[in-house]
Structures
1.
Amino acid sequence: MSNAKKLLVLISGKGSNLQALIDSITSDKLNAEIVAVISNRADAFGLERAALANIPAYIIDHHHYETRESFDQSMIDVIDRYHPDLLILAGFMRILSPLFVERYLGQLVNIHPSLLPHYRGLNTHQRALSDKVSQHGASVHFVTPELDAGAVLIHGIVTVKSKDTETCLENRVHQVEHIIYPKAIKLLINHHIILDNNRIIFDDKRLVKPKQYYLK
């Protein structure tokens, strides 16, 4: 595809969101190329997904580094060989150092399993059920030095059902994640979007609230 944007994806596990991006690209729904995948775990199934799609993949095991900064620097050394337009965190289970985040600020996006700013951090589905909320979901947001505090581009919303278990709710959130992540990347590719003081400027106008997608 002409003028395809270069994406580099960071993973730690199954890589289902990586697969959603691969599928969107191969079906011509996303004018992009995944130039490389980096995993901090050698057993991540996402590495097999990358291999099947003929995407170069790198294992950078964080256990081999004494500091977070030295681990992040090793990732930087690989990333900068590819000059990606966007860095995509797809189930990457490491907190990134300020050194890393500041280097790629405005290019670095993540998907989080809650409707941010609600339920930052871990155990989001359990917390949502405990609070008996009526809606839950996922958020695609820019990454900033503060954990899960970057401006949100899109919310994927699911209805919480009375008989939901944590597993049932998690499965539906995964469904909506696989829909909204390619949608968010498409927005970033097709529109002039910048991060300005943790505010999203969308086609020269401030995005007042995140775009929303409801899982049917």
2.
Amino acid sequence: MTGAVQPMKNVTLEPRDMADLRYAKSLLENPGFAVRLANLLGAPIEEGFRLLPKNWSRSVQNAVHRALRTALRVATTSLRSKRRGKQASVGFHRVVTGISGGIGGAFGLFALPVELPFSTTVMMRSIADIARSEGHDLRDLETRLACLEVFALGSRSKTDDAAENAYWAMRAVLASAVSEAATHIARHGLARESAPALVRFVSIVAARFGVVVSEQVAAKAIPVVGAAAGSAINVLFTSHFQSMARGHFIVRRLEQAYGPTIIREVYEQIKLSH
């Protein structure tokens, strides 16, 4: 490709930035996690849902909230690396969550309260690593909270009209919650984790993250799934959110360069071949 790309009147993106935005859209609109699981296992996830015990959803939601509270603590206390632009170590984090998934696969739903917070924390660090590799400063509180946002971007709601609308709609829903959470943390830290601003932020993320976690749990409930398959499911789980993170932080990087309105307009004009 030569010269600047002009996808719309009065808006010009450099060729490399246009290619990055196209790549980001392809990541953010990839097949849903349940579809990818079905392709991996060769079995519909609905079979796993039928095999789960009663009240399993309550156990999942409790584990999800605990995992996200842990991730929030990690995001606000230890994601302070000053190195930017260096390639992210995505493979290492997949291996670690794969090992924990193997253990979780062996013990089933009983392992979820321990295994999910651990794997979510590892994924949180991987997401932050990806953000850093895209040039974002992890010393910035809103950047660190944007890492937690990624867990809300990995599912599709039945009310989502289109994949691109789903991404921007979720960004809009999260915007005020992130701002309120950032203001609260800047003033009070995490000393008041039950504060409405933090509870609201975690709850919004949990509502979407819980969908993907439920699909993961259901997949592990299928009889043919053992420790080895549990490991493969966790690797896919991690890979899924790494893709969401890469797309999300490419978009955020380009927004800083061109402005959010321009990037959204160009994004929505991009047509992907499937």
